[in-house]
Design goal:
six-stranded mixed sheet, disordered N terminus, 226 residues, elongated, DUF4360, mainly beta
Length: 226
């Protein structure tokens, strides 16, 4: 779309513990779209001025950024480094503003990607994205044991597309309307015995420092007239 250049990369603050947990606030860019058909990229509507909770200098482990092409949310500091077990649990708040009037959206699929380095015996136990809408409905996409299970290991970039079960829809937009929701990214790491006398832990890394290694969540929205 013609107004993509109005959106710099955004970074939002958060906090971290052994299990990474945070709820930074995201906004969506204020561009008048009342007379336009919906953009295929829902993050085109991210309002960069909606809140003071984001900070370009934030170093929190659940900090969130928006990719340059507006196709995904990036979690640059959310990672597990050479660990036998642990989890990442980030829950940014999203605010969509100036949505095209006469439409509603439903996020019907997501793609989680980033870097994995799993020793044999280390595996990703669960990857899950949950979407919380204002009417208390929840859409969920989940994959159990997607990487490394049964001693196969993994080393490289992954990209995991998942359908959202029973995707909920936003409210019907009017001129200048906004919609708030929350997105939760959960990734858990575990390990298992791969031989009868295998008593030691096995280690894995989730996420990385290079641009293509950072954890990210791509969002696909289905628009319908209302």
């Amino acid at each position: 779309m013609a107004y993509r250049s109005l959106f710099p990369t955004l970074i939002f603050g958060g906090t971290y513990a052994r299990s990474v947990t945070s709820a930074p606030t995201l906004g969506i860019a204020a561009v008048s779209t009342a007379s336009l058909a919906p953009s295929p990229d829902i993050l085109d509507y991210l309002d960069t001025t909606a809140t003071s909770a984001f900070s370009a200098s934030s170093s929190g482990n659940c900090t969130v950024a928006v990719s340059a092409d507006h196709a995904s949310l990036i979690f640059p500091n959310a990672k597990l480094v050479y660990s036998p077990a642990g989890s990442i649990d980030c829950k940014p708040q999203l605010v969509f503003r100036d949505l095209p009037a006469g439409y509603r959206f439903a996020i019907d699929s997501v793609t989680v990607g980033g870097y994995l380095n799993l020793e044999k015996g280390s595996y990703v136990e669960r990857i899950q994205v949950q979407l919380y809408y204002p009417d208390s409905s929840v859409g969920s996409a989940m994959s159990k044991n997607p990487y490394g299970k049964y001693g196969v290991g993994y080393d490289g970039i992954f990209s995991l597309p998942m359908s959202v079960s029973a995707p909920a829809a936003s409210r019907c937009s009017s001129v200048g309307s906004a919609e708030a929701m929350a997105l939760e990214l959960f990734v858990s790491l575990s390990h298992e015995e791969i031989e009868f006398d295998d008593l030691g832990p096995h280690f894995g890394t989730v996420g990385g420092d290079a641009p293509d290694q950072k954890l990210r969540v791509g969002l696909h929205a289905q628009w319908t007239a209302c």
